[in-house]
Automatic annotation (TrEMBL):
Domain KANL3/Tex30 alpha/beta hydrolase-like: 27-209
Protein name: Testis-expressed sequence 30 protein
InterPro entries: AB_hydrolase_fold (IPR029058), KANL3/Tex30_Abhydrolase (IPR046879), NSL3/Tex30 (IPR026555)
A Pfam entry, by short name: Abhydrolase_11
Domain of life from the UniProt record: Eukaryota
Length: 219
């Protein structure tokens, strides 16, 4: 279902992937610095989650300004929270590359509010540093997050050195999990594996982590 979400004096284009049965929890998903919500990895994940009973809302917000991207993400969270059509108990924020930075930024901003609508964060190819610039880490938002976090990254990602992400994760004071896609680069391409094969691994990891965290919430 296509929707337009009011954002300032403009609209954000978004698409709901809706499961057959009513979903209690949802995932909001956005793209990286290039592309839009129709990036194949996002389309694949959204379809997979909906097929397994999780509502997914993906949206497009262009621009390389992280504050602008975070503001758009926050608008989408509010939109879904107030939605009469999909009365959700909670959402997980998910993004690819720059989209995951925007998601982390929103969660940090909203963690000041006493509100448990946001259940967790999924970071696909989190861009921890610029290529070859490992000295300046983009970890400030991650260290302040108060909900569970899943990282899915390629072990050969030029923007997320393995040891550096593991170091940041060890400082985080929340339940976190890192799933490494062996030999994958920042775009999740792996020599000798098809995109569908890699996406199957990513999608299954995200779903099982969501289920674990939803179960914890329901106990």
């Amino acid at each position: 279902v296509k929707v337009k979400i009011p954002f300032g004096n403009k609209y954000l284009d978004a698409v709901f992937s809706i499961p057959e049965k009513k979903s209690t929890y949802g995932v909001i998903l956005t793209h990286g610095a290039g592309g839009d919500m129709n990036f194949p990895h996002l389309v694949s994940l959204a379809a997979y989650l909906a097929a397994h009973g999780v509502l997914c809302l993906r949206f497009t917000c262009k621009g390389l300004n992280i504050a602008h991207r975070a503001k758009a993400f926050k608008t989408v969270v509010e939109y879904l929270k107030l939605s009469e059509d999909y009365k959700l108990s909670g959402v997980f924020l998910a993004g690819r590359s720059m989209g995951s930075r925007a998601a982390a930024s929103v969660i940090r901003q909203l963690s000041q509010e006493e509100d448990d609508f946001i259940q967790g964060l999924v970071c696909l190819s989190y861009p921890l540093h610029r290529p070859k610039l490992q000295t300046k880490l983009r970890d400030e938002d991650l260290l302040f997050i108060r909900c569970p976090v899943l990282f899915v990254s390629g072990s050969a990602d030029e923007m997320c050195e393995k040891q550096l992400l593991e170091g940041v994760a060890s400082k985080m004071k929340v339940p976190k999990k890192i799933h490494w896609i062996d030999k994958a680069n920042h775009g999740m391409a792996v020599k000798g594996r098809t995109t569908d094969d890699v996406m199957e691994e990513i999608n299954a990891q995200v779903l099982s982590w969501l289920r674990e965290n939803i179960e914890l919430e329901c106990k």
